[in-house]
Amino acid sequence: MKSSIFKKLLQPIFITFFLLIGLLLFVNINSLKTVMKKDLISHGKTIGQSISDLITYHEPSALPSNIQNIITTLAFEPEINYIYITDTSLNIVMATFFGAPPQAIKINLEQLATPETRHVNYLNSLEVTTPILHSGYGYIFIGMNQSLIKEKLNTFLPKLLVIILGLMLTCTILIYRTIKKIITPLEQLTEFTKDLERYQFDPTMINHDKLQNLTKINDEIGQFSQRFINLHQQLNSYIEKLTQAAIKSANINKEINIANKIHMELLPKPKNDYNNCIVSTFIQPAKDMGGDFYHISESHDTLFFAIGDVSGKGIPATLIAAEVLTCLQTTLHFLNDPEDIVTTVNKQISQNNPNMNFVTLFLGALNTKTGQLSYINAGHKSPYILNKNHTELPSTEGMALGIDE
After folding, report:
1. Are 333 and 363 spatial neighbours (Cβ–Cβ below 8 Å)?
2. Which of 67, 142, 196, 315 sits most deeply, having the most CB atoms within 10 A of its CB?
3. Residue 220 CB neighbour total at 10 angstroms
4. Whose CA is closest to 383, among 371, 395, 373, 374?
5. What's the pLDDT tens digit per position in 263-284?
6. How would you classify residue 132: left for phi > 0, otherwise alpha for psi between -120 and 50, otherwise beta?
7. Angle between the 4-56 and 64-74 helix axes, to the nearest 10 degrees?
């Protein structure tokens, strides 16, 4: 199973498992050593107490020669390294070793201390002390063989390691099967998402059977698979709607471009010369279609120019702008006074304005011979004369068109 998730899950599990095993081994070994040590001490105390009782109660067999034979015989047991008996002044009166006592024992006796147990490392012994009462003797010292603890541990540890390795192998198989049961559905989900990317969400090219089988699993994977299928179906539906909307939007944009072109063509193209007046124009709608417009026309010695803007944007504003331009062109054939022209245009617009779109308009009339300018400002931003001071024309404070007749 080639899965990075498997490795990520298995690695910390094994690390934790090994740490627990190490901790259990350490605790168990220490516990075993403690138990074995207590058993060894208990065995030594039992032997010491038996000899002490034999001497204390003056049994017939308690003669010194018999006691010597008894401790010599006991010293041959594997649990016992040595035995010696002292008087009340801690002088050795009987012992299982020949000749002078070992230096380690001499040092212990010179310290005039008789603890119940003590380590004699030089002799690899755990020395157990038992007092002898009412006999003239002092203590019985029995050196228990500490190497037996190591030997027993060395015999027990291989068996314990075999058990642990068996447990590890069993746990590994169980963990592998458990993780594989989790990972396999996730791998199938991953393959499904790769197919989505490879075939660009084409439902005819994607195999849904495996994913449908995952929905039958009665756990979180099954629930996730079902929700993933629902999400995929919703996404396909959304893509289909989005495609249709894109086609529709393309058609609308095409129509808007045509309408915008018509709007731009309604705006007059200025001539280079109007009786020694040069006129240039520029317009940039805020959207593809807007309500901005201008108009230029000449009547005898008067040059009429208009700048306007319809409230709102888009097709409705463009239609109203076209209506205003038509009204202006028509009215300028009959009237010359800016105020009368704007009043007439306002009446025509107000009669057919159900959406209450208003129009701001600046209309100027320039006498090309005298240079006199008359104008009216119907709610529009006042223009500037681009001289040295950039003079703003005083507003006539007229009301925007289309609000009231």
Report:
1. no
2. 142
3. 10
4. 395
5. 777 777 776 667 777 888 888 7
6. beta
7. 170
